[in-house]
Amino acid sequence: MIPPLLPPDETSRQAALGRLQILDTPLEERFERITRLARKLLGVPIAAISLVDHDRQWFKSIQGLCDTQLPREQSFCGYTILSDELNVIIDASLDERFQGNPLVVGEPNVSFYAGCPIHSPDGFRIGALCVIDRKPRRIGREDRQALMDLGMMVETELRETIASEVVRDLLGQLASEHRLNMIDPLTRLWNRDGLSDALQSQLQRVASEQGTTAVMMVDLDHFKKVNDQYGHLAGDEVLRQAAKRMLGSLRQHDIVGRFGGEEFVVVLHDPGSQMTALRIAQRLRVRISDGPIRVSELAVPVTASVGLVFLPCGTDATIDQVLKQADDALLRAKRTGRDRLVCANESTENNVIAQAS
Length: 357
Prior knowledge:
Number of helices: 12
Oligomer: single chain
Order of helices and strands: HHEEEHEHEEHHHHEHHEEHEEEHEE
Largest sheet: 6 strands, antiparallel
Number of domains: 2
Strand content: 15-25%
Structural class: alpha+beta
């Protein structure tokens, strides 16, 4: 194995990567969408957006693997950032640079690799959009163009400012190593501490009459049975995939995090009206149950119960009060049959309960 060399502009490249404040941040649907497309369009088991840090490659998004980061010395993307051209490796086992590489001789048994360099807004190669197969293969002209087009989509997203002022504030206050303390390592969503800070910021904004918010408590139904029937490793994968389904049902500037176990919290940024908040919550509930979650050869059916509380502009409430209302609504959803949405703002007689048909 021959580790990749450092680019001549390594110092400036690292500075450009740092300015983006993207390392060690939660999953974002805008990037998940691109890796899903790459995996589908090129017919590969693995696709990733990889950012090359000082001594690691860190995945902003990855489909087909659970890794968050890998050593830079083992990385294929470390070679991709050395040029503006596509980096295509037909069979890594025949390439002296990768012979003996743990990623080749062991899991995930990389054979084919194609990487498109990703540039920062100021033009530095900071990472790659890559696709991987476990068997040798060639890549045709149309597939090359598709990979380059998707790479340009990644760069477009990197040029966009973070839409959520909550997320922007959270990231701006934290050094990269401290962000890890606010991210759930299993799902790569915000953890309880990150959620608390985000919710506190939203409540202050609403109390000062700068908009509305809504909070959901989401619980995966009968999750203990999933662990008991399929095992805890399968249960972990169900949590990861359910988290991605939730992320895909929300707007870019909403916040979703793992509150603990199989319970999640969603904070909607300025939904405007209670009806809009209900539509988003219903879309999330339906998306979670949209077909079984695949875990190896298993197909695990999943549904969720959701409790929602809407806070109009000017509402003055504490985090504990809001979470208590959302949790009470969640409990009513579970007691009335699960796989449904209950809104805390409605009276007991007129509870808004939405159930899959």
